[in-house]
Amino acid sequence: MIDHLGTDTPRKDDPGLVPLRMELAIYGAATFSNSLGYMVMVAVPLLLVSLGLSPLMLGIVLGSRHLLVLFYSIHGGAMMDRLDTRRVMLMFAWMNIVLPFAYPLVPYVVPLIIIQMVAGYCTSIGWIGAQTLIGQTLKGSPVHTGRMGAVIRIGALTGPPLTGIAWDHYGPWAAFGLLALWGAGLLISCLALPNSASQSTNQPVTYRDFMPRANDYQSAISLLAIPVIATVITVALLRISSFSIQASFYVVWLESQGYTGTLIGVLLGAYSLFGGGASLCTGVLVKRFSPVWLMFVMVGVSIIAVTLTPALGTYWLLFIAASLNGAAYGLTQPLAIILMSRGAGIQMQGKAAGLRTSANRLAATLIPPFMGTVAEFAGIGMSFYIVGGAVFALLILAALFAHLIGAAQGQ
Question: Which pTM does this prediction carry?
């Protein structure tokens, strides 16, 4: 039972006996692909600050990481539905080993924008694939999705502090080399996924398979007609808007306050640690509360925690806020995956994951340059209040709209 925003038919949560190899490989792919984004949050802003870029240009470079993901996530998910998820993941996984070394090699704005775009997409394919497999093989199980949400925090907990330490002691080459090592972990996890028995694994791949198809986008967008999916996509936009505030100018603001890369990495590690703990509670919470409204509340907590960053005068207050933000954000992630998986049919899991990722990247692409523009005129500290306040106001409006949809269906 989801609630009045849920799907028309209930779905069995128990996927049955899942091979350990499959489960661990999915968690591994999710962990390395997801945590790469957190490590980039440390390494790339520090590189850009060292180049002396303005807040606006800094925001543009950071936001560009999500541009290809925004337009091609649905296509990537459709390729997984059509060609086999493991196969598509392997096509892109190896590039996560090569591309990190390009950052310190060509530290100029235009090349960095291109590198960000390509690297962001290659990493996202691993994350989309893990979400797709959760729906295809684990049936969107709250227990398994919660476990995945917790396990991915291991990488996000260890990755950022290690990246900060590598930067402080050995410089940019060491920091980005660590990102390449994480990329190798993603490739190994993809290789460990069992081969599919589907006939699609024997289908030859041609250049046409890499070209977006209009009908794939139409069928993915048609999922928005399902109330629960429309609600999740709306909340996902605001959830990632909150994360994008942290991913763009959080590190920049902390660096301006004199905090070292190591201390910044510890804050991001705490964010991930508490996110993992909260994710483990998913299976219990969805039995007691509406997952839709629980998601609304937790996104609100996350937005408030990051918006108040400039008002927190001590490192321990920043640590508490980061932990609270991480717990709230960590819980919303499996909730969104569960609801999307339940709302979409088994043949649409890749497209559903791609649709949610596209919504996420829309916010992730727009927020950094928008916040950079605000920071140009109002300062970095004030930009947290302005952008965060606007996102929270939109969340309230989205909650009211969701309530109206439920009231209309209840009549």
Answer: 0.69
